[in-house]
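To the wet lab folks,

You asked to see what we're planning to order before we commit. Fair enough. Below is the target structure as tokens, and below that is the sequence we designed to fit it. If anything looks off to you, flag it before the synthesis order goes out.
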């Protein structure tokens, strides 16, 4: 690692630590693909049942099962960031890390890249299982699948950084605020139904959530209509804004924790 630039080496060190944590623990490896496999199997059989009811009139597999896979990917990206952070909290290693020359940007960068790796594993498992068992082909979405994944990835990173800042400010016990976040925003993201189905006030919320644009375009692609790439670009820009805002928020919280001494007494009881 000595041949790498200093900042790159430090980011790489955060990633290597996460790798060794995963390598040494089955309980950390299995959740990378275990829960997503359950989701795929459950929703796969639901879509198969719905197809048996409607016959050849409509194929629910690319619409519902595809939406489940994309949403699970987003959730894994977000939770990949927060879990990597919480590993340091659970091991009471957080203060030790920042007693080193590691900078806040390098630490967050390491968390993000760790999330890239773990979410990629989950995505490969999901697609392989959905294709092998339920016949869901990624090629059916065309090149549009790439901006779909990009928007969900960017928003997942932004939300993960924001959730990490919340835990840093309120203490490890507040991690229970983090896990339900994907479920809480899913009704507004219109994962399984058009945004127009929502009441007016929920539609306003949906318009500021990048995933809503992804799933609207997903349904358009399945229906044989071309996706709206301007809306996907707008969603990507919106997700980028969330990343910048979340990073700024995390930096402010971290500076507060250092200034007030919160970082030195960070423990399961730290809620103020």
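Sequence we intend to order:
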């Amino acid at each position: 690692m000595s041949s790498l630039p200093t900042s790159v080496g430090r980011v790489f060190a955060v990633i290597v630590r996460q790798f060794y944590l995963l390598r040494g623990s089955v309980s950390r490896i299995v959740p990378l693909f275990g829960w997503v496999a359950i989701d795929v199997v459950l929703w796969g059989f639901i879509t198969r049942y719905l197809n048996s009811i409607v016959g050849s009139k409509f194929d629910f597999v690319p619409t519902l099962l595809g939406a489940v896979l994309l949403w699970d990917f987003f959730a894994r990206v977000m939770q990949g960031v927060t879990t990597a952070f919480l590993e340091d909290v659970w091991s009471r290693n957080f203060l030790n890390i920042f007693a080193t020359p590691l900078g806040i940007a390098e630490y967050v960068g390491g968390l993000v890249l760790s999330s890239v790796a773990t979410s990629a594993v989950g995505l490969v498992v999901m697609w392989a299982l959905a294709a092998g068992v339920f016949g869901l082909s990624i090629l059916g979405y065309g090149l549009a699948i790439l901006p779909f994944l990009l928007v969900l990835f960017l928003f997942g990173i932004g939300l993960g950084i924001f959730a990490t800042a919340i835990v840093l400010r309120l203490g490890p016990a507040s991690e229970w605020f983090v896990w339900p976040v994907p479920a809480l925003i899913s009704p507004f993201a219109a994962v399984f139904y058009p945004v127009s189905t929502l009441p007016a006030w929920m539609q306003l919320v949906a318009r500021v959530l990048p995933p809503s644009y992804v799933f609207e375009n997903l349904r358009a692609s399945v229906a044989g209509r071309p996706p709206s790439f301007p809306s996907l670009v707008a969603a990507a820009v919106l997700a980028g804004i969330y990343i910048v805002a979340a990073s700024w928020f995390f930096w402010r919280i971290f500076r507060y924790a250092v200034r007030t001494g919160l970082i030195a007494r960070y423990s399961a009881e730290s809620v103020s």
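Structural context that might help your review: The chain has one domain: 6-265. Residues 6-265 form one domain.

Thanks,
Computational group
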